[in-house]
Design a protein that fits this description.
The chain is about 30% helix and about 25% strand. The chain contains eleven helices and 20 strands. α2 links the parallel β3 and β4. Bound molecules: S-adenosylmethionine. The site of S-adenosylmethionine has 19 residues, from α8, β13 and α10.
């Protein structure tokens, strides 16, 4: 029986095989959405043969990049995993990845103009705001700007951000529950705009000041789950190597380093903005100390780059853009186990209803719930 993931992605720019990355256990999930197809149909119907300098923003699994590969696009994203998905889907369709220019969301952009801007609108409106502010100086009144998302995610506030930072904006009718947004860049608008992010946010009395870039977890205020974890971090005083896995703004690892100056702390996340935030948070609060910062999709693939850890701290993600689930958390636990030394510990916080302790017991053969309140628990497993 064929599954949705084996169905070819049929676009007006060609038919391709696409995979999600990382692979999911839910076979009903595809590597593209109706919004991708609506966008590509629109671009085809413009009749334009050459899109010039074409920038694709927030391409989740590379569907847009693969379909538009002949135009040698730029791929601008905050996600290492999305960039990796695009590379893998290029290889799967025997396309040369050298055709794409990969641009990290944190890169300082020059003012070379974009002829065509194609964007998947992110759920996080702070990220959208930051991206529009950063891209503004690269747009001119002749730039073709088309953005897309599922209709239920196109809010008045989404349109207002385009109006505020780029120019007059209109939207299409919904098609297969997706909608398009068209915008005319007005250089007079972005010339006046000042960057909103990063923001410095206090954590708690005596805790680190967090430097939050636009796409980090809990960017406007300190998260209560993180707070509960901080109260139950089990800080040691001897020298140990500690990893903040899925570090976000790095508040956990930074606080650990502040409490145990002998600890050697590393930070890992798949978001470029998270790693940038962690670096700035650490520098602000643990001045003079050394730490490692790495962006990637699979911790275990980094191998000797980081060495083995005595302790890994993890507040795993439950939301990924528009989807929810524990697949990512489970793969982070498996990776963590591989990256611990014998006798090393993985310490995890989670909502009680997610019952991470059961998953950890299955994986490690042992688990201890060291703290629990009405909402969260902290569990510790040791690598035998
Ligand atoms: C719930 S947040 C926790 C952030 C921070 N540690 C805290 O407690 O405030 C989860 C983090 O995991 C990151 N993440 C998601 N998938 C990941 C992956 N495959 N590998 C590494 N980090 C990932 C997200 O970018 C996010 O920063």
């Amino acid at each position: 029986m064929s599954t949705k993931s084996e169905t070819p992605f049929k676009s007006p720019f060609g038919s391709y095989q696409l995979d999600r990355y990382p692979k999911t256990t839910d076979k009903s999930l595809r590597a593209w959405s109706a919004a991708d197809l609506y966008l590509l149909d629109y671009l085809d119907q413009t009749g334009i043969k050459d899109f010039g300098a074409l920038w694709i923003v927030n391409d989740t699994f590379g569907a847009l990049g693969v379909a538009l590969n002949r135009f040698k696009p730029w791929s601008y994203s905050d996600s290492f995993i999305s960039h990796e998905a695009l590379k893998r889907n290029f290889s799967k369709n025997t396309l040369e990845t050298s055709k794409v220019k990969f641009v990290k969301s944190t890169k300082k952009l020059d003012e070379k103009k974009i002829d065509t801007l194609v964007m998947k609108i992110p759920k996080n409106l702070s990220l959208l705001e930051d991206q529009l502010q950063r891209l503004g100086p690269k747009l001119e009144d002749s730039t073709l700007i088309v953005a897309a998302c599922m209709a239920k995610h196109m809010h008045k506030s989404t349109i207002a951000l385009f109006e505020k930072y780029v120019g007059p904006t209109e939207t299409s009718l919904a098609k297969k529950k997706a909608r398009l947004l068209f915008c005319d860049a007005d250089p007079a608008i972005y010339e006046k705009s000042i960057r909103t992010w990063p923001k410095e946010i206090p954590s708690f009395e005596g805790g680190p000041i967090m430097v939050n870039h636009a796409n980090v977890f809990s960017r406007e205020k300190f998260d209560i789950g993180t707070r509960f974890f901080i109260d139950n971090l089990g800080v040691q005083t001897d020298s140990e190597s500690v990893l903040d896995l899925g570090c976000g703004n790095g508040v956990l690892g930074t606080y650990y380093a502040m409490q145990n100056p002998k600890a050697k702390v590393s930070f890992f996340d798949e978001s470029y903005m998270a790693i940038q935030s962690a670096r700035e948070t650490f520098q602000k609060n643990a001045r003079g100390k050394h730490a490692s910062f790495l962006v990637g999709s699979r911790l275990s693939k980094l191998g000797s780059e980081l060495g083995e850890f005595d302790k890994i701290l993890c507040n795993p993600p439950f939301h990924n853009q528009f989807e929810v689930g524990t697949d990512t958390a489970e793969s982070m636990f498996r990776d963590a186990r591989k990256s611990l030394r014998k006798g090393g510990q993985l310490r995890v916080v989670g909502n009680n209803h997610l019952a991470y302790h059961l998953r950890l017991r299955k994986l490690f053969g042992n688990v201890e719930r060291v703290a629990k309140n009405k909402k969260f628990s902290v569990s510790v497993s040791m690598k035998a």
